[in-house]
């Protein structure tokens, strides 16, 4: 249990709760849920520019990272087709991968196919079910993809000023504006209560909020004096109590709750808002192909990690379809922008390619 780990090392409840957010981030789980301690470990593994466990902003936004990877690939002869949706994987006579078919009917032939789509999309939508073992299909269908995350992107006309650390008179950013700011995290019990509400189909009345202001470090993201604020919030169920769906009224009601909470910490925040974009779990699934809205392509619970990711017997990036490899967040070691699953899958694919 995460709570036991934090109690062993720390005394301050606000510190323990702040650390606990990284143990439940993206997970429909409470700090009291068994196995939650691993998710905290997952968020601090690796390093950034020599600093262990560090995270950072990407200059130009996350799309700049994809652009950099694309440039590196094309410099080495890769061809990238953007906005070309894949309809299904092309199979040979023996059931092996032989390329992909695009929605416009174009066939792209290849000896190997690597998919960084989720396991559900890869194996339940892009492959004919009769080509896969029934028990494999059943396991993929049973993956826990519940997500508590609602992402809210906000445009503001001035920097938030927090009661705990008011802005300087000149309005220039202070050190805390360059960090991840955790709100409604004074105690782990608050996080547990927020989870319990969502488990019963109700958006948290006092949601956990991670607030970042990337434009402080990357001014090009907003006009002078203005900023973009990224709100990573939970808990919100995919389906509301009574089977209700997330309509505009429900979206705005939850966002208003989030903004009311921020207002308590930073009076004047709501008046500074000039635009907002609300992405509930169903929105994240529809727009980004995240199953259940899950940013990790599936829960990071102990039964879906290591040798069981995505399913037992297929944790080594290969799949029941010869020549088809899983290289996204649904593969070991899971989600997060670290590239480990892709690198590992590439190593396996290169090894197999040499024998073709």
From TrEMBL:
Subcellular location(s) of the protein: Mitochondrion matrix
Quote any Pfam family the record assigns: Amino_oxidase
Tell me which InterPro entries the record gives: Amino_oxidase, FAD/NAD-bd_sf
Q: Provide this UniProt record's keywords sorted from A to Z.
A: FAD, Flavoprotein
Task: Give the signal sequence positions.
Answer: none
GO function term, MF aspect, one: oxidoreductase activity
Q: What is its main location?
A: mitochondrion
Which cellular component appears as one GO term in the record?
A: mitochondrial matrix
Q: Which residues form the Amine oxidase domain?
A: 34-178
Role noted for this protein:
Probable oxidoreductase that may play a role as regulator of mitochondrial function.
The family annotation for this protein states:
Belongs to the carotenoid/retinoid oxidoreductase family.
Assembly notes: Interacts with COX5B; this interaction may contribute to localize PYROXD2 to the inner face of the inner mitochondrial membrane.
Q: What is this protein called?
A: Pyridine nucleotide-disulfide oxidoreductase domain-containing protein 2
Q: What is the lineage of its organism?
A: Eukaryota, Metazoa, Chordata, Craniata, Vertebrata
